[in-house]
Amino acid sequence: MKLAMTLLVRDEQDIVDAHLSFHLNAGVDLVIATDHRSTDGTTEILESYERDGHVQLIRRQDARIQQSTWVTQMARLAATEHGADWVINSDADEFWWPREGSLKEVLKAVPDDYGIVRAVSRVFIPRPGDAWFADRMTARLALAAPINDPATPFRHVAKAAHRAHPDAVVLQGNHDVAGVPYAELSTWSPIELLHFPLRSAEQAARKHETTWTAWLRNLRGDLARAKRDFEEGRPEAFYDRVAVAEPTVRRGVEEGSLVEDLRLRDALRGLRDGEGFVRPGSGDRFSFGPGSFAEDVSRVVDRVLLEEADGVRLQRRADELAARIAGRSGGAVYGYARS
Fold it and tell me: Is 149 a member of any domain?
């Protein structure tokens, strides 16, 4: 079995080396990466993996990002040029953690009739300080209810992996895949998604600025707030508002709203090699042990909460569509007038 990963990046120097080393040592055979106008050293890290034969690098200088189009192109390359059996579609701040064994082994276990699995995100909270993100960000949200506020970066989401296919279409945000003749395995997910979206004030400000300047249209509330801070000359204010101080973290862990999760920290410490990270072939690939019963239950709860969140989001989109139709029709929607 051959496992490929797609990766779309821009200015991710603080995390991309760790991301590549982790996944290439966790069962990924090849990363097809699109670098969109990076200027911070990200390109040089990708080029070093390309020289070693682990990355196929595509460079894009377009003014506007075309996320779904570019990821779809990479996913199809994995199928047509590299003979991949499965494709994981990732961002640099996402670490795909298999239930047991390796990423390749858990995907190989998916029954033949199914070809789409989604990994539920587990968001690690930003914390102040100068330490490297994996050493500092060791607490994640333990959701008791779905988060649906469009103005928060901590919404409950899932990302899709799929059997490689030349007609695959990876939808916006990598949340789903169309065009493949396979059903989604919706009742079970063999992978968790450890997500580190906001890692420092500098990184968060840069991420938000490049996002709103590269996207043609984006109405997400968290980006709108960050843009307002930027225009007011306070680019780091957004991070300062969301970073969680140590006493609050301790209280959250005690109350159960946060979970101390050291898995990625420990895994990346084992992969460190001087100033960089272990490349595939220069050391033994690590294998993931089975999770506890409590972790299995937590995954089920997260899956249920995701379904609830999806339902709320669908209703919100329907309401927004109805409002637009009402505006264009002078207030009547399906025979009813707006109140």
Answer: yes
State whether 133 and 206 are in the same domain: no
273 located within any domain: no
For 178, the domain range is: 3-195
Provide the CATH number for the domain around residue 157.
3.90.550
The terminus-to-terminus CA distance of the chain in angstroms comes to 58
Read off the pLDDT of residues 156-212 as tens digits, 9 standing for 90 and up: 789 999 999 999 999 999 999 999 999 999 878 889 999 999 999 999 888 877 765
- In whole angstroms, give the CA distance from residue 202 to residue 208: 10
Q: Would you say residue 8 has pLDDT above 60?
A: yes
Co-location of 191 and 128 in the same domain: yes
Report helix, strand and coil shares of the chain as percent, to nearest 5.
40, 20, 40
Alpha-carbon distances, residue 46 vs 29, 240, 268 (angstroms): 15, 30, 18
* Three-class DSSP category at 184: strand
Phi, psi of 258 (to 5 degrees): -125, 155
CB contact at 8 A, 135 and 265 = yes
Residues 152 and 213 in one domain: no
Distance of CA 182 to the CA centre of its chain: 23
- Decide if 182 is inside a domain: yes
Tell me how far apart the alpha carbons of residues 119 and 96 are, in angstroms, rounded to a whole number.
Answer: 8
- Residue 77: C-alpha distances to residues 4, 26, 67 (Å): 10, 21, 15
The answer as to whether 329 is a domain residue is no
pLDDT value of residue 339: 33
Q: What is the pLDDT of residue 114?
A: 97
> What DSSP string runs through 9-64?
ESS-TTTHHHHHHHHHTTT--EEEEEEES--SSHHHHHHHHHHTTSEEEEEE--SS
Specify whether 149 is located in the same domain as 212: no
Reading phi first (left if > 0) and then psi (alpha if -120 to 50, else beta), residue 203 is in: alpha
Helix (H) or strand (E) holding 3: strand 3-9
Please check whether residue 31 is in contact with residue 57, taking contact to mean a CB–CB distance below 8 angstroms.
no
